[in-house]
Design a protein that fits this description.
This protein is mainly α and 234 residues long. Helix content is 66%, strand content 3%. It contains eleven helices and two strands; from the N terminus they run αβαααααααααβα. Strands 1-2 form a two-stranded antiparallel sheet.
Length: 234
C-alpha cells in the first residue's frame, strides 16, 4: 500500500485537500509550434479544396488570391518546426517521436486487434499511433513542398517531371486530408488531450492511464502562505 501511494504521489493524484493534480505535458513554445503548423496546414488544405473542387471554386472566386495564399502557406509550413528547434523541450519530444521500442509494437498489435484495455496499450509520452502520424506527416509535408516547388517554378524541371509532380502532389493532398481528419476526430474524442495541448498540462490520472510508461515531472506543490506573527509572540 505504501508503494502504491508513493507512485501516485510521484505522478500527481490528488492533494490533501482533494484538488486534482496536474502534470506538465507541453511547454508554451511547443503549443505555439503546434498551433502555427496547424494553421498553415489548414490553410493549405482549404485553399487546395478551393482550387480543385468546382463548387468551392465558384463560391470563393478570387482564384489568383487563393493560389497565392496556397503557395505561401505551403512554403512557410516548415518554418514553425525549424524555429522551434531552439526549444530544448521540443527537441526532446522530437527524439521521443523518432524512437520506436518493443512497447510500441505491443501498442500497434493491440490497436489492430481493437483491444482498448489500457494495460494492452503501453505508451510513453507519445503512443505508437502518434509517432507514426508525426513521422508520416513530416515526410508528406516535405514531399508536398518539393512537388509544389516544381509546379510553382516551371523552369526547375522538364515537363515530364512537372507532370509527375502534379500527380503526386494531388493524390498526396487527398491522403493528407484524410489523415488530418482522422487526427482531428481522435482529438475530439479525448477532451483531456485537447486540454493538454491548449493549457500545457493534463490530469495525472489521465497520464497514468493513457501513457503509463511516461514519467512526467512532478506537479509543483501549492505554496502555503506563512502564518503572520501574533502580537506579543517572538
Amino acid at each position: 500500500m505504501l508503494l502504491r501511494s508513493e507512485r501516485a504521489g510521484e505522478a500527481g493524484g490528488a492533494d490533501s485537500e482533494g484538488r486534482e493534480q496536474r502534470v506538465r505535458r507541453f511547454t508554451a513554445a511547443e503549443r505555439w509550434i503546434h498551433r502555427t503548423s496547424a494553421a498553415l496546414g489548414g490553410l493549405c488544405l482549404v485553399t487546395a479544396g478551393c482550387l480543385y473542387l468546382p463548387p468551392l471554386a465558384e463560391l470563393v472566386g478570387r482564384r489568383h488570391l487563393v493560389v497565392t495564399v496556397h503557395e505561401w502557406s505551403g512554403l512557410l509550413l516548415p518554418a514553425p518546426v525549424l524555429l522551434g528547434l531552439v526549444s530544448r523541450a521540443f527537441r526532446a519530444d522530437l527524439r521521443r517521436l523518432n524512437r520506436f521500442g518493443p512497447h510500441d509494437r505491443t501498442w500497434l498489435r493491440s490497436a489492430l486487434r481493437r483491444d482498448h484495455r489500457p494495460t494492452a496499450r503501453p505508451a510513453g509520452k507519445f503512443n505508437a499511433g502518434q509517432k507514426l502520424y508525426a513521422s508520416w506527416s513530416a515526410g508528406a509535408a516535405l514531399v508536398m513542398l518539393g512537388t509544389g516547388l516544381l509546379m510553382w517554378f516551371t523552369g526547375l524541371a522538364p515537363l515530364p517531371w512537372r507532370t509527375g509532380a502534379t500527380f503526386v502532389h494531388d493524390w498526396l493532398a487527398i491522403a493528407l486530408a484524410v489523415a488530418v481528419g482522422g487526427h482531428v476526430m481522435k482529438a475530439l474524442a479525448d477532451p483531456e488531450a485537447r486540454r493538454g495541448m491548449r493549457t500545457g498540462s493534463v490530469a495525472a490520472d489521465w497520464a497514468r492511464r493513457e501513457h503509463p510508461l511516461w514519467r512526467p515531472p512532478p506537479a509543483t506543490p501549492t505554496a502555503t502562505p506563512a502564518e503572520p506573527p501574533r502580537p506579543g509572540r517572538r
